[in-house]
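Example 3.
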Amino acid sequence: MTATPALQSYSEGRWQQGTGEQRPLLDAATGEVVATIPARGPDAAAMLDYARTVGGPALRALTFTERAAILKALARHLSGHLSELAALSACTGATRRDTAVDVDGGIGTVAAYASKGARELPAATVLLDGEIEPLGKGGTFAGCHILASRLGAAVQVNAFNFPVWGMLEKFAPAFLAGMPSVVKPASQTAYLTELAVRRIIDSGLLPDGAISLLAAGPGNLLERLTAQDTLGFTGSAATALALRTHPVIAGRSVTFNAEADSLNCSILGPDVSADDPEFDLYVDQIVTEMTVKAGQKCTAIRRAFVSPALLSAVCDALSSRLAAVVVGNPRDSSVDMGALASIDQRSEVRKAVAALGAAARTVFGDPAKVEPRGADSEHGAFLSPLLLRADDLFAAPIHEVEAFGPVCTVLPYPNFGQLVSAVALGQGSLVGSIVSADDSAVADLLGRLAPWHGRLLVLNRRDAAESTGHGMAMPQMLHGGPGRAGGGAELGGLRAVHHYLQRTAVQGHPALLEALGTERKQS
Ligand code: NAP
């Protein structure tokens, strides 16, 4: 089985049809209808109520380690459905390499949380956070902090570019924390999320109510949230702002986490010359970030900073590498880069490239022209990789406009002072990378760039063989970033689990507090 023609939602323990207009969702490469999505899903109040009153109690009755064991079995179960999920993933425009990031990466994230939960969390339902602090001179009064599962639902609104990873990287820590997930995928690629949820439900591994799916417009989902619920969002900065300032979210202090867009940078250190291995590592990394998922990664490199002396050499090296990239039907194994998620998305990217064009010139590629292998660019959302060059380091559009596709701009920086100022014009990013073998210069730069970033990668000949790469969000490492990037924090190992737990200070006799550490299983 592949996708259901009319997408269904999973609510109150059963699959349900939506209502209202059915919008066709097209294959990104062929333009054929993959599925339709209804305007409205099941009643949001009933969906949330079931998650809170059936899923939540069932999850909270399990210890952290019991939940981790379920996640482990779930990762194994989903791995058994990899080929089915990968086949449908191609409809989103994804090559097998792209699917590895989304589907394999999502399952890997579940496995990573299973393993972290088993190794680092207790057979308990409440966590002790930190040490017991004496609060009285006589030793009869002290305090500590505990972390307990919130009683609501973890609502997760996701972006179109990671229909599986985007869901699983939020679901796994929420599950481990004992909160039921209510998943609202982006409409464009919701058919792949729906298939993954079907396989999760079919596994029979999860307690009833532990996951719900809203495969439809958001309806009045947000209006129904309470202070015990959480809202995790991934998507554009504009939608993040609308949700953050929503009267219910703001008014009821609903815990809110946003992962928004980001003008990530990659810096070639001034110590590097064109003959150094770091030069090739830098070029390789940019080509990878431009072409994996056709550049539709929130972590992709948008701004490439190099010394003025190497500007032309970097542009030339990138151009010759990009000329060898085969764009085309993602089902063809000889293709390097597939399609954008939709024709609309391609129009958005072309618009963004035109805005960047006010401050940069195109070095490689034509936004209006590409000859895809095994497909055509009228029905498929294909776009050439586009490399731009801006000679003015501070040209505003380069630091303001996100072209969410295979687009990167190279800029020259004369010194670290101006470099850091230019990076800061991006207003906060998910990830930055420095390619350099000069550890002391890197240490200086790291300290100055850290306040603007959620993650920083240092790449050179010593770590390249094992590096997981600029764009890869690893479950062990923080994913999120300040400012424009949304100000949120996901992953980062158990930090993401803590996000779903309420931290409470408990004060009393030290003997009571000590006992909390040993008698953690809730009745
Ligand atoms: P989007 O248009 O903001 O949509 C994101 C999600 O929000 C979708 O599920 C969308 O549903 C939903 N949504 C829109 N309006 C809503 C509302 N009023 N109430 C509730 N939900 C609402 O973003 P996108 O186009 O899918 O994603 C692209 C953007 O995401 C890029 O800017 C990219 O940088 C960013 N992104 C960030 C990360 C990260 O981790 N930081 C990861 C991936 C992508 P519908 O689809 O049904 O409209």
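The chain is about 35% helix and 20% strand. The pocket of NAP is lined by residues 157-162, 184, 186-188, 217-218, 222, 234-236, 239, 242, 259-262, 298, 402, 404, 430, 486 (CB under 6 Å).
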